[in-house]
Design a protein that fits this description.
heterodimer, A: mainly beta, six-stranded mixed β-sheet, four-stranded antiparallel β-sheet, about 0% helix, B: about 110 residues, mainly beta, 11 strands
Chain lengths: ~110, ~110
């Protein structure tokens, strides 16, 4: 079975500071890993994904994440936070095409001026 | 850019009433999903659907729930007799052959059962 843990339900950073949102997963087979962002009153928008190949993946809006198998982690980072990054971020795992997703609890990112 | 749409955005209903939540997946997608998120909890998988039949369903998806693709564009979730605990945000998602590992989500329908 698969599961996802996101450490920190709320993270607050200053504008211009590094953003680090943590995601650890559990999977008995090689996982597919995703980060989605949800802005207020909107749906889940795909930020980035890892399936195979390069373990450092880049997404939209300057975000990137690194798949670390030894640590079972897929942390999301952005070098410099912008006010527009304030949203809720969800990490998700699946194991095959067209397979159900398992989501983490989400992390709400607050960006202070 | 193609996107998944859902209607209504909000629905309030009385306990015991039937509700139908509607989704229009991305047009060339063949795989469809429903998830729900109870306030303050994780997004949970409900059901997946392919080729006019359910591929997989969770234990949440009991006999009160059903899904249908009534025509070439809509995908619906019906709850026959709503309970208070069905209050949640319901997300529809779809995926296509080109990038089958990725699911594209709609904006959600917030259901409130009174």
């Amino acid at each position: 079975a698969q599961s996802v843990t996101q450490l920190g339900s709320h993270v607050s950073v200053s504008e211009g500071a590094l953003v680090l949102l943590r995601c650890n997963y559990s999977s008995s087979v090689p996982p597919y890993l995703f980060w989605y962002v949800q802005y207020p009153n909107q749906g889940l928008q795909l930020l980035l994904k890892y399936t195979t190949g390069a373990t450092l993946v880049k997404g939209i809006n300057g975000f990137e994440a690194e798949f670390k198998k030894s640590e079972t982690s897929f942390h999301l980072t952005k070098p410099s936070a912008h006010m527009s990054d304030a949203a809720e971020y969800f990490c998700a795992v699946s194991v095959n095409n067209f397979n159900k997703f398992y989501f983490g609890s989400g992390t709400k990112l607050n960006v202070k001026p | 850019e193609p996107e998944v749409t859902q209607t209504p955005s909000h629905q309030v209903t009385q306990m015991g009433q039937e509700v139908i939540l509607r989704c229009v997946p991305i047009s060339n997608h063949l795989y469809f999903y429903w998830y729900r998120q109870i306030l303050g909890q994780k997004v949970e998988f409900l059901v997946s659907f392919y080729n006019n039949e359910i591929s997989e369903k969770s234990e949440i998806f009991d006999d009160q729930f059903s899904v249908e693709r009534p025509d070439g564009s809509n995908f619906t979730l019906k709850i026959r007799s709503t309970k208070l605990e069905d209050s949640a945000m319901y997300f529809c998602a779809s995926s296509g052959v080109r990038d089958g590992e990725t699911q594209y989500f709609g904006p959600g329908t917030r259901l409130l059962v009174l």
